[in-house]
Amino acid sequence: MTLRERLVLGPNSIDTTPEQSGVSVFIGAKSFKQRRLTMKSWKPEVIADSSGKWCGNALRFATKEEAEANVKALAWRWFSVIDTRVVESDDPVNYRWVDGRLVAVD
Questions:
Q1: What is the pTM of this model?
Q2: Which listed residue, of 45, 52, 81, 95, carries a Cα 20 to 30 Å from 7's Cα?
Q3: Could you list the mean pLDDT of each consecutive 10-residue stretch along the chain, which spans 106 residues?
Q4: pLDDT tens digit sequence for 29-44
């Protein structure tokens, strides 16, 4: 655990990484903001032209299901979407998908 994570998380955090323990670093009802420091995120991507190139944006979700729901909604709004996917990212989570709407994570 980095010094920054210790300062942000405080004394209730465990002094191991998910790679070391194989389990979540956080116990109990830690806030979403605290959990997102060490979690991977999911990013939605689309192919929207004949180039076959996957394109995404800065949206990062905590779960694969949230990212899939978001990219599916995007595909319904755009006429040119050929294919969609979600991929893991090391970027921090910055959005949630709640009741079909984006919610920014502070």
A1: 0.63
A2: 95
A3: 46 44 42 59 96 96 97 94 97 96 93
A4: 455 555 545 569 999 9
CA 74 to chain centre: 17
Q: Confirm if 39 and 105 have CB atoms less than 8 A apart.
A: no
Following CA atoms 73, 57, 37, 21 in sequence, which dihedral angle do they give, to the nearest 10 degrees?
80
- Cα radius of gyration (the chain): 16
Terminal CA-to-CA distance of the chain, rounded, Å?
Answer: 22
CB atoms within 10 A of CB 59: 21
Alpha carbons 67 and 50: distance in angstroms, whole number: 23
Q: What is the dihedral angle through the alpha carbons of 14, 17, 92, 95, rounded to the nearest 10 degrees?
A: -50
The secondary element (H helix, E strand) that includes residue 102 is strand 101-104
Could you tell me if residue 100 is left (phi over 0), alpha (psi between -120 and 50 degrees) or otherwise beta? left
Instruction: Return d(Cα 100, Cα 79) in angstroms, integer.
Output: 19
